[in-house]
Amino acid sequence: MNLKIRAPHTINGTISLPASKSISNRMLLIRQLANGQITLHNISDCDDTFVMQRALKGYQEIKTDLTQKVSTIDIMAAGTAMRFLTAYFASSPCEVVITGTERMRQRPIGVLVDALRSLGADITYDEKEGFPPLRIRGHQLDGGEVSIPGNVSSQFISALLMIAPTMRRGLTLNISGGITSRPYIDITLSLMRQFGITIDEPNDHTFIIHPGQYNSGEYTIENDWSAASYWYEMLALADDGCVELEGLFKDSLQGDACVSRLFKPLGIETTFNEQGVVLKKVSQTKPDLADYESDLSVCPDLAQTMVATCCGMKVPFRFSGLHTLRIKETDRLTALQQELAKLGYEIKEENGDVLENNKNNDQGNPVLRGVSGHSIETYNDHRMAMCMAPLSILHPGLEIQDAEVVTKSYPTFWDDLKSVGFSLS
Which is nearest to 340 in space by CA: 377, 299, 383, 315? Predict the structure, then answer.
């Protein structure tokens, strides 16, 4: 499904955002490790969470059907599910093959597999070394001590942390080098502690997880700050407006809550109330920023939003800490350059870690150029669709290809746009 978008110039409304898929998927695994004795409220209804739930249900069926020797579990394009379930199946009594889409089979997982093997896991590659699909013969792991690089994927670290209490000796996890997306690791640690797991942190790069059992209880999942970022972008690009986003917490566990800080220099004010947050555009003029620089290594999922916003506002920028974007749902570094170029925005990449544009100016809207002009390819990446859609405020009739990809994290995105006056055809 392709959508052509026409946007209002003033945006006002109240939006109920989707629940956080990051917290949902962690809590689904923790609930599984607690033998189902945790009641969850406000679980995300996005594709990634559905895949996680389906896989865990499939595992339960494997355990009860003794005639089923090996089961194939397809997690489609859900990277979180691939990492978390690889660790879970490796530490649980089962034999499974876990696979996914063609793109998922191109996303490296060798660092996690090597760590699990060193702890006693039985995992082999069914096709290409270092990549899914994986054949896993699960059993309780001895545990012990393992080191893993921190600059590849925080999900590898979170996967190991969550299963660590089930290991006979627990786990001492050493992180080498800089840690990418540290807030996502902090989410994992916080949830584990809330449900009874003892964790020591002798320094910033070492986690000692003691053997133990997750406690029973209840948990309400916060709405998604990553989804909120697109509303910040819309207001920044619009002439005026005010939007209330329900279900966001002031003391959020989510690293992407930093979006409120990132958009303050771009003229968006954030106020918390009992329902969530209120976003208001406080300036109708271009921010007086000579060069907007920020390290996004703690929140790489905001990179596409920040790049698209600054391009639209003609704010020169330099965003670093983007090395993980190459191995996301698509190569997001290349995808951003290619699609924004169609609208006349020139972006430079540096060392696979930086995106910058220091040539924006005040000479009016950029000239459209490139084949197909207004038609934006999304590369089966939900965030490409959602970060590009607000640019329809500046480029009427902008077309988003394969618009249904938003269901991966924000199924009601297009309906929410219509509710504030966007026209979709």
Answer: 377
